[in-house]
Amino acid sequence: RTSLAAAAALVLAVLAAGCTATPPASLNVTAGDGTAVVDFESHHVFTYQIEVMPGGRIVDVPTSPAVVTGLTNGTAYTFAVRAISAAGVKGDWSAHSAPVTPKGRPSAPTITSVAGFVSLDGCTARVAVTPASNGGSPILRYEVTSSANPSHPVTGTSSPIEVPGLLQHTPYTFTVTAVNALGASPASAPFTGTCS
Fold it and tell me: Is the Cβ–Cβ distance between 77 and 99 less than 8 Å?
């Protein structure tokens, strides 16, 4: 039985060296954070190439599943696969997959200014925020943390975000994060401003 199995493997290798395979079937793609996992029917006697569209980038992979990196969050991609024999003979491309869109957490936003107005409970700061990349998923809210109460961030869905209960003419340091369905961004650079 061992000799029969070895002979069968040798026949397959010889055939694969000089012929091409049919296009890989059952192409399934799952998007990640700047990545996509491409899953298809593969065989150990072939290697494979993945075509990434838009852009036409070709990625060489040994087998399935394969992780394609370097994708832009928020951009829709499709993928096709072909087999390559040991002799370098390239098969036909498969049909392109359905489009998938990588998504991730937002990039850190930027605080551009801090102003304020006097209210009954003290001074309320208006923290102006400029969003960065949303990671391919809409920003749901911003969370502003102040040095006055660092463990209790104030949330807002758009800029400026109002932070109440501060002392007038007193400097405070603020940071902000952006939150989408995938999670929170890194914190912004600290910004020190006076509520007045």
Answer: yes
How far apart, in whole angstroms, are the C-alpha atoms of residue 175 and residue 145? 5
Question: pTM score > 0.85 for this model?
Answer: no
Q: Which residues have a Cβ under 8 Å from the Cβ of 123 and sit 6 or more positions away?
A: 116, 117, 166, 167, 168, 170, 195, 196
CA distances, 84 to each of 10, 18, 19, 26, 96 (Å): 17, 10, 9, 18, 18
CA distances in angstroms from 19 to 12, 14, 16, 143, 156, listed in the order given:
10, 9, 5, 59, 61
**Residue carrying the six token digits 């298809």:** 40
The count of residues in the chain is 196
Q: 175 pLDDT exceeds 90? A: yes
Cα 176 from Cα 128, distance rounded (Å) = 10
pLDDT digits (tens, 9 = 90+) for 134-151: 999 999 999 999 999 888
Element (H, E) at 1: none
CA-based end-to-end distance of the chain: 87
